[in-house]
Structures are given as C-alpha cells and as structure tokens.
Design goal:
This protein has about 150 residues and is mostly helical. It is about 50% helix and about 5% strand. It has a 3-stranded antiparallel beta sheet. The protein starts with a helix and ends in a 10-residue tail after the last helix.
Length: about 150
C-alpha cells in the first residue's frame, strides 16, 4: 500500500512543528525545510486544521501550530485524516464488481491485514516518530546559523 504525497507531507509538517521552537512555524519555512511545494503544503495544512491537529493564524507572527500534545497524535489518526481510500483490494471498497466477491476468502484476509496495519499506526505517536529533536532540527535547517532560520 502506498500513501499519497499529502499523507507524507502531513507527517512532515507535524514532525517539523514537533521540533520547532514554540511548536509553530510558517508554511513557507516548512516547505523550504522539506524542499516541497508550498502550494501542496497549504492544502495539507488546511486538512490538518480542519481535523483540529493544527491551528493557523494569519498575519505577522502567524503561522501553523500544533493544537495537541504530540504524544496524543497518532500516525493512524493522521493517515485517516489525509487518505480517503484504504481499499487495497476492490472488495474492501464501496463498489464491488468482482465476480467472485462473497465467495472467496480474500476480503477477510485483506481486512485483517488492514486492521493489523492500523493497529501498528495507532500505537505510533508523533512524539515517538519525531523524538530526535537535534537530528530533525539539523536535517531541517533549524539550527542557529543556518541561512533563513
């Protein structure tokens, strides 16, 4: 299963905010740090804000900030917010055109696999995946003396 770039970017935004001073930053700074499109991050941040994972403030001194403690935000929650389709096989989705749907055992196997996948993601928190403060800050150019930060 491969997730969309928006799901990937959502985790990157949240990890940036987890290690940022004051747990806040601008979309522009986050885009530069991750070397991704600001336009894409704007959409991602809008969805994260709609899900009450971040808050946005306009104007000078504004930006994006975490709303909750990183220990309470799970990777599974973020994936569910950002993704719309987890039907790894057709019979898990809303449309069922497969001729053998209902008489084969694949649906049950893939359903259990998806449940196990989310069980792991629901145990992993933002705090856990972004716990290397110094390493992340260095990789994202947040260390003093780095141009632009």
């Amino acid at each position: 299963m491969k997730h969309t770039s928006h799901a990937d970017f959502a985790l990157r935004v949240l990890m940036y905010l987890r290690v940022a001073p004051g747990r806040r930053g601008s979309v522009g700074d986050i885009a530069v740090a991750h070397r991704v499109s600001r336009h894409h991050l704007d959409k991602v941040v809008q969805r994260l804000a709609a899900a009450d994972l971040v808050e946005t403030t306009r104007g000078r001194g504004g930006g994006v900030a975490l709303v909750r403690d990183p220990a309470t935000i799970t990777v599974g929650e973020v994936m569910r917010v950002m993704e719309t389709d987890f039907a790894v096989v057709e019979c898990l989705g809303p449309a069922r055109y497969c001729r053998i749907a209902g008489v084969c055992g694949a649906r049950n196997v893939f359903s259990r696999a998806l449940d196990a996948y989310f069980a792991v993601l629901d145990e992993a928190t933002l705090e856990e995946i972004a716990s290397n403060d110094q390493g992340l800050r260095g990789a994202l150019g947040m260390i003093r003396g780095v141009a632009g930060h």
